[in-house]
Amino acid sequence: MTVTGPATTALDSRRDKSTTANANAEKARAGVTALDNRLQRNADQTKQQNQALRNATAEANRLKRALKGTAKERARLTKERKKAVVRADKAQAKAKTAEEKYEKVVLAELVKREKERDRAAARSASTTGKTLEPVPERSPVVAASASTRTRTAKATSANPPPEPTDASTAIAVRTAARKTAADAGVRVPRTRRTR
Predict the structure, then answer these.
(1) Burial class (CB in 10 A: 0-12, 13-18, 19+), 132
(2) Radius of gyration of the chain from Cα atoms?
(3) From CA 108, how far away is CA 115, in angstroms rounded?
(4) Strands in the chain per DSSP E
(5) Apex CA 195: angle with CA 123 and CA 151, to 5°?
(6) Which domain holds residue 175?
(7) What does DSSP assign to residue 64?
């Protein structure tokens, strides 16, 4: 005997409901899986960001320490520079003083040599009767007596005079000596030429 009607309809209804329920369950499980994946990505991203934050914090601390060290170094170098400037100024002043003393010694030596040359020329000229320029530190030359000429001639023969210089060289030497003396603060009077 064939059964139809209500029994077949109940079976179809149960099968449809079961299929729908299974589909809904699969869809729900897929949604849970998707949420699990998103949660994992979120956790990974949070971990990376926390690591980046720790790295940035460490770098910021390192930069702060570097800035503090640079500031200390700058302060130390500034102090050293001030000390170096003071030492350089002292050394410059010392060098200037030494140079001035050296110039005075050179000037004194030049004046001494010039006086010796002038006096030797005066002794030589007095034997020949020539008129000489007067030297600033002595009175003009006067006519020598016969006995004076004799003594001068003997002295001249014992100490021969230096090589004579021409007039332009003598003028140049006197001018240089006066300029050097003026720079050193020593006053040298001008000699008057006699004709």
Answers:
(1) middle
(2) 58
(3) 10
(4) none
(5) 15
(6) 104-183
(7) H
What are the Cα distances from residue 193, in Å, to 53, 113, 132?
A: 97, 20, 8
Q: How many domains does the chain have?
A: 1
Distance (Å, whole) CA 48 – CA 39: 14
Cα(27)–Cα(7) distance, integer angstroms: 30
- Placement of tokens 């102090």 in the chain: 79
63 occurs within a structural domain: no
Q: Is residue 164 part of a domain?
A: yes
* Rounded-to-integer distance, Cα 61 and Cα 69, Å: 12
Q: What is the pLDDT of residues 92-137, one digit of tens each?
A: 999 999 999 999 999 999 999 999 999 988 888 877 655 545 555 5
- Report the percentage of the chain scoring pLDDT > 90: 51
The CA distance from 153 to 163, in Å, is 17
Asked, for residue 94, whether it belongs to a domain, the answer is no
Using CA atoms, how far apart are residues 27 and 189, in angstroms rounded to an integer? 124
CA–CA dist 144, 20 (Å, integer)? 157
CB atoms within 10 A of CB 192: 9
Whole-structure pTM over 0.70, yes or no?
Answer: no
Query: What is the three-class DSSP state of 35?
Result: helix
Decide if 119 is inside a domain. yes
The pLDDT of residue 106 is: 94
| Residues in the chain, total | 195
